[in-house]
Amino acid sequence: MAAALPVAGCATTPAAGPTEAASATTAPATASPAATPPDHPHHRLTELERRYDARLGVYALATGTGTTIAHRADERFAFCSTFKGLAAAAVLHANPLSHLDTVVRYTEHDLMKSSAITRRHVATGMTIRQLCDAAVRYSDGTAGNLLLRDLGGPARLTAYLRGLGDPVTRMDRIEPDIVTAIPGDPRDTTSPRAIGADYQQIVLGDALPPDKRAFLRGLLERNATGAGARRVRAGVPKGWTVADKTGTGDYGTLNDIALVWPPGSAPLVISIMSSKATRDAAYDQALIAEAAAYVVATLT
């Protein structure tokens, strides 16, 4: 995996032995806007950036053909709550499956604002299984922090990702600090390509054994956040299977990292990240949905 570089270019790249459909949309990553056709990803995705006044990062892979779409794919974005799927994977990797039944105790002092699930169970504690469910499906901030605590802290998650071959993603802090998303701040950031590859490994690859992988995929497929329904899922045809984790932060930051299964076809990896210039910028869920719809139409 390439290290993060500030590349604003956009390209569609076919696998070796390109098909007619793949080669028809191929252009060099360094091609200028004037040298690319109007329907090239560079134009379509920069138009979305212009319309929504946002910076948009996209990395998408058709796993069956190897064709990719990349736009600002190696630029850094704050990952916000998308870390929670990775944290769950790291906890699963570090422990036997029976660890899911371990009860974790916490106090009112541990509760974050976005803690609808953990807030109900302060008196009894929650199992690791329940914390994974709360963090991944409901994006419960306290649950995410407790998974990091079980793992040994943010640096341990970074170390796990380095073990996956990801030299880019770095976890420095916990909730609520990770959502500050200050432009130029490298803390708690990743690139669309890096985090997309991470999710590909933990959900589609062999980074986890089959039983743990199935557990994590089930959580991602049953995403229960309202944001999940309005981002990649809103840009995917009905009847397709989607497993995803969203993230939201200051500076209009909206992210969605998804694995998408078209009926009868190999899955797609769709990693979409975005940000804006001002801290209180409006959130445009449709930006992510439209980018996802374009990616799906291009790769299938």
Automatic annotation (TrEMBL):
Instruction: Report the EC code(s) recorded for this entry.
Output: 3.5.2.6
For this protein, what reaction is catalysed? Answer: a beta-lactam + H2O = a substituted beta-amino acid
- Specify whether Nucleotide-binding is a keyword of the entry: no
**Compositional bias (Low complexity):** 13-34
Sorted keywords for this record are: Antibiotic resistance, Hydrolase
Record-linked InterPro entries: Beta-lactam/transpept-like, Beta-lactam_cat, Beta-lactam_class-A, Beta-lactam_class-A_AS
Region listing for Disordered, in residue ranges: 13-42
Output the SUPFAM superfamilies linked to this UniProt entry.
beta-lactamase/transpeptidase-like
**Assigned protein family:** Belongs to the class-A beta-lactamase family.
According to UniProt, the name of this protein is Beta-lactamase
The record lists the lineage as: Bacteria, Bacillati, Actinomycetota, Actinomycetes, Micromonosporales
